[in-house]
Amino acid sequence: MMKRFPARNGLREWIAAIWATLQMAGGRRPSTLPPADEALRRRAAELQGHVGWLAEQIGERHVPGRPQALQAAADYVQAQLAAAGDNVHRQTYHVAGHDCHNLFVERPGHRRPDEIVVVGAHYDSVPGSPAANDNASGVAGLLGLAQDLRDVPNDRTLRLVAFVNEEAPYGHTPQMGSWVYAHACRQRNERITGMLCLETIGCYSNRPGSQRYPPGLGWFYPSRGNFIALIANTRSARLVRRVVRGFRANEAFPCQAVALPESVTAIARSDHWSFWQHDYPALMVTDTAPFRYRHYHTPQDTPDKIDYERTARVVRGLGHAVADLLRIPS
Questions:
Q1: CA 102 from chain center: how many Å?
Q2: Does 6 reside within a domain?
Q3: Residue 217 scores a pLDDT above 90
């Protein structure tokens, strides 16, 4: 049985959501971004390399249709995490007659190792798509963070996790990789203080009208899809406030945030959902996928559609935000 949050008073939850939205909407909206420096250009090239390998060299990666490609993607991600100096662990389980693997590294905290921050992204694809943005971009971001956070002092424990089987037919079922992982964490009674899910982070546009929303949200948020979004349920509002604050304080890139009731089903479309089901605070970092990206879940989701420089800015900002989550003030 999946663990679900107990029901809350609907009106009270919507009032809390509106209040949180008013607090978090807006923020820094620079009209032009600062020029890219050499480090940012280098990171953009690294992201492009990861996306190209997953979406072009490997392509579709899923069970039961392309299990060998899914294994190749797992091997690639494991090798890249190991290159950052980490011991990579596999959590293996069986789906449709195949071994499937969640891959994770752990960097123990120095002061409160029992408090855990998880950053994750899924490496499988939907059938019929090379999945450059959904979700090779998120995996590339995860690998970038593995490098950026290598020498960051961490009072809390950091876990970086590459999840399998986020896409249909396993999404939102106990065969979803993140559900398997979160369930094991709950069984061990681990204290996860926050989970960040990187989900389609590569599409940006300055064109008016390029951004759409679920009904009602367009009143609070911009019509141009040139920002990264942090999306959570109302129970994770404290986490999303802290992450958006850490991002905006360190990166001059538009960042929007919202915490909504789970009855808005669009907010639950990735691996953070599994952590909600196990009573952990979690948020999704996203370019909003189908509300902006017209190649979502199509054969045209190819590496040439990704804006690598702006994705690199997002990853850099997330590095600062995660470092803040790992610190305990003196």
A1: 15
A2: no
A3: no
Flag whether 50 is in a domain.
Answer: yes
Residue 15 inside a domain? The answer is no
Cα gap 81→29, rounded to integer Å: 33
Residue-range definition of the domain harbouring residue 43: 20-26+36-292+302-326
CATH number of residue 212's parent domain? 3.40.630.10
The total of other beta-carbon atoms located within 10 Å of residue 199's CB is: 27
How far, CA to CA in Å, does 206 sit from each of 34, 211, 254, 295? Answer: 16, 9, 11, 17
Give pTM, 2 decimals.
0.93
Say which residues have a Cβ less than 8 Å from residue 15's Cβ, sequence separation at least 6.
Answer: none
Phi, psi angles (nearest 5°) of residue 211: -110, 130
Q: What is the CA radius of gyration of the chain?
A: 18
Predicted confidence (pLDDT) per residue in 256-309, tens digit = 999 999 988 899 999 999 999 999 999 999 999 999 999 999 999 999 999 999
**Predicted pLDDT at 1:** 33
- The per-residue pLDDT for range 26-63, each reduced to its tens digit, is 655 556 899 999 999 999 999 999 999 999 999 999 99
Counting Cβ atoms within 10 Å, is residue 8 exposed (0-12), middle (13-18) or buried (19+)? Answer: middle
Contacts of 196 (CB under 8 A, 6+ apart): 117, 118, 119, 120, 243, 272, 282, 283, 285, 318, 322
Q: What is the mean pLDDT of residues 89-114?
A: 97
Q: Which amino acid is at 160?
A: L
What is the C-alpha separation between 237 and 193, in angstroms, rounded? Answer: 13
Both structure tokens of 164: 């399998």
* DSSP tag of 79: H
In the predicted model, is pLDDT for residue 153 greater than 50?
Answer: yes
- The answer to whether residue 7 is domain-embedded is no
Which residue has 């039961």 as its token pair?
A: 64
Distance CA 210, CA 292 (A): 6
Among 247, 256, 258, CA closest to 313: 247
Mean pLDDT of the chain: 92
Domain count, the chain: 1
Q: CA-CA distance, 21 to 25, in Å (whole number)? A: 6
